[in-house]
Design goal:
- The complex is a heterodimer of chains A (382) and B (195).
- Helices cover 26% and strands 23% of the residues of chain A.
- With 382 residues, chain A is α/β, with parallel strands linked by helices.
- Chain A has two domains: 213 residues, Alpha-Beta Complex (Quinone Oxidoreductase, Chain A, domain 1); 157 residues, Rossmann fold, CATH 3.40.50.720.
- In chain A, the strands form four sheets. In chain A, strands 3, 4, 5, 8, 9, 16 and 17 form a seven-stranded mixed beta sheet that branches. A six-stranded parallel beta sheet of chain A has the order 12-11-10-13-14-15, sandwiched between helices. In chain A, strands 1-2 form a two-stranded antiparallel ribbon.
- In chain A, helix 4 links the parallel strand 10 and strand 11.
- By secondary structure, chain B is mostly helical.
- Helices cover 42% and strands 0% of the residues of chain B.
- In chain B, helix 2 packs antiparallel against helix 3.
- The termini of chain B are far apart.
- Classes of the chains: A alpha/beta (382), B mainly alpha (195).
- At the A-B interface, strand 2, helix 3, helix 4, helix 7 and helix 10 of A face helix 1, helix 2, helix 3, helix 4 and helix 5 of B.
- Chain A: Its cofactor is Zn(2+).
- Chain A: InterPro entries: ADH-like_C, ADH-like_N, ADH_Zn_CS, GroES-like_sf, NAD(P)-bd_dom_sf.
- Chain A: GO terms for molecular function: oxidoreductase activity; zinc ion binding.
- Chain A: It comes from Paenarthrobacter aurescens (strain TC1).
- Chain A: This is Alcohol dehydrogenase.
């Protein structure tokens, strides 16, 4: 099969690989029709995630058709059109049985601090991902769901991570009616977080980024007020003034490990790998939320320490809430919202890139060329 | 703005728009207003039907000794089988897993070092194949010419421009240095070749 493989920092290519095999009775093999590059894939691409091995296939956002099922699979059949959440999880461990699917304890021998994620380094379990023609899907009776007939495949692929994660980010903020919500980052997750904040009754939604084309999308797609932090000497002071010196009730960090805005922090984290991630967005979140407010973190960070202003968070009496999104818990409600026309996730798709051109896709997305917001990957056989 | 800003008194800031105005402007405004009626509430919620018919899953066969965190009691019943450890990088990885817990910075720093070693082991190995690594095609840098590389940056006041200049150096410099090293080694060999 044709498959994206990692060749070292900033380098990927398409190679011929063996079609994955059933390794466990509850596995399925899915033929991928449509995938995506996620902003968090860029952390792998830039060599920031420990134990990212040359030869691995990335990709945790994909939909496709069931090609083969293991002997114990009962909920799926060969030929089913499925969407697969980015979490790999068993459905029965201490954490899964409480709904914490992204924190499953039975699928990642390499680490206890994170669950299993498709194509996301050995730190997340060492599973090959869906930027390929075929992918192994463990616990096929637990994770995947057949795509409803009425649902567009492009909407479905965005339901495997980006939309649920943004929606979850807004949920973690415990938004109350009339709250002022600030979202750092106008990438796909930030856009969906901003859009979701309105559904939860926010009175005001402000999105911060440095790329004008993404801020334009935040205005048109997410109906948000926007500020470009490059235009302000100190974005935190600006946000304080914009909220009558109070600060926001809720701030969502939808940026994560490779935040821009401070050269030194970026170089020590993204380039020298001496931090688990640049803490700029998170520190701005801590600084710009009001005392007693909530900071929600859905931006991805690596396992090393980062220079986070924890003292300010403590002294301000903040609530910090965070997790990888347990995708499947969001699906029923998000299906409703899509069906009712409240959300149209595929509106943020800007690029559709053939798998064979994956190296260009990564570069375009990483370097933010061509007004790229969300690139989908079209399988060779699709 | 009020004469005395919000936080200095007991006042509550006035809403910019009423609920009716927001509902009229934004599709679906307030449909998830009740925090108790949101999908991940409460955070821990026993009893959700997951599709699992097992208490502890059947164990996946271990085809090679699978490295694992020392914070796990055993290798998890299901695991990824991508890219088994090999070479010097593999030895470093096994050492990091065997020696240090996830709570130790050394665990992660050794793994990151192993990643760098792995990249160079793989580059060198690729030169013995019909498809050696090619930093031009593999970085996708040619998309700079096909996807508006210049106009995406020029005049845009993007914050990432202050470090993007480093990226080609980080990617390209080791290749240039390796090339110069190879040339120097060949010259030395020629110099010392018996006449």
């Amino acid at each position: 099969m044709r498959s994206m493989v990692y060749r070292g920092p900033y380098k990927v290519r398409v190679e011929e690989k063996d079609i994955p095999q059933i390794e466990h009775p509850n596995d399925a093999i899915v033929q991928v029709k449509l995938g995506a590059i996620c902003g968090s894939d860029l952390h792998l691409y830039h060599g920031m995630m420990p134990d990212t091995r040359v030869g691995m296939t990335f990709g945790h956002e994909f939909v496709g058709v069931v090609h083969e099922v293991g002997s114990s699979v009962q909920n799926l059949e060969v030929g089913d059109r499925v969407m697969v959440p980015f979490n790999i999880y068993c459905g029965s461990c201490y954490f899964c049985s409480r709904g914490l699917y992204s924190n499953c304890h039975n699928v990642n021998p390499n680490a206890t601090a994170v669950g299993g994620i498709y194509g996301y380094s050995h730190t997340c379990g060492g599973y090959d991902g869906g930027q390929a023609e075929f992918v192994r899907v463990p616990f096929a009776d637990v994770g995947p769901t057949t795509i409803p007939d009425w649902m567009d495949e492009e909407d479905a692929v965005l339901l495997t991570d980006a939309l649920p994660t943004g929606y979850f980010g807004a949920q973690l903020g415990d938004i109350a009616e009339g709250d002022t919500v600030v979202v750092f980052g106008a990438g796909p997750v930030g856009l969906f977080a901003a859009k979701s904040a309105w559904l939860m009754g926010a009175g005001r939604v402000i999105v911060i980024d440095h790329l004008e084309y993404r801020l334009e999308k935040a205005r048109s797609f997410a109906h948000a007020e926007t500020y470009n932090f490059v235009e302000y000497d100190d974005i935190v002071v600006h946000l304080k003034k914009a909220t009558d010196y109070l600060g926001a009730d809720v701030v969502i960090d939808a940026v994560g490990a490779e935040a821009d805005g401070n050269f030194l922090q970026h170089v020590t984290s993204s380039k020298l790998k001496l931090q688990g991630g640049s803490p700029i967005a998170l520190n701005w979140a801590i600084d710009s939320v009001r005392k007693g407010g909530t900071v929600s973190v859905v931006g991805a960070y690596g396992p090393l320490f980062s220079a986070v202003k924890f003292g300010d968070a403590m002294n301000k009496g903040l609530t910090l809430r965070m997790n990888q999104c347990p995708v499947k818990r969001q699906w029923p409600r998000l299906f409703e919202h899509i069906r009712n026309g409240h959300l149209k996730p595929s509106d943020i798709v800007t690029h559709r890139i053939p798998l064979e051109h994956i190296a260009e896709g990564y570069h375009i997305f990483s370097a933010k060329l061509d007004d790229c917001i969300k690139p989908l990957i079209v399988a060779t056989s699709a | 703005m009020a004469e005395i800003p919000t936080p200095y008194t007991s006042s509550t800031p006035a809403l910019k728009e009423t609920a009716e105005e927001l509902r009229a402007r934004i599709p679906g405004w307030g449909v998830d207003l009740d925090p108790a009626d949101r999908p991940s509430y409460p955070r821990e919620q026993p009893g959700i039907e997951t599709g699992a018919r097992w208490d502890f899953p059947e164990r996946q066969p271990e085809k090679w000794p699978r490295e694992r965190s020392v914070e796990h009691a055993f290798v998890t019943p299901v695991f990824g089988t991508s890219t088994p450890p090999k070479g010097i990088s593999g030895a470093l990885r096994k050492y990091a897993y065997r020696k240090y817990s996830e709570g130790r910075a050394a665990h992660w720093l050794v793994l990151i070092a192993a990643d760098r070693v792995d990249a160079w082991e793989s580059h060198l190995r690729s030169f013995a194949t019909l498809r050696p690594d090619n930093p031009v095609t593999e970085t996708g840098v040619l998309s700079e010419f096909s996807h508006h590389g210049a106009s995406s940056r020029v005049g845009k006041r993007r914050a990432d421009l202050n470090h993007q200049w480093i990226d080609p150096i980080l990617v390209g410099a080791p290749w240039v240095l390796a090339g110069l090293g190879a040339v120097a080694a060949l010259r030395t060999l020629r110099k010392h070749r018996p006449a």
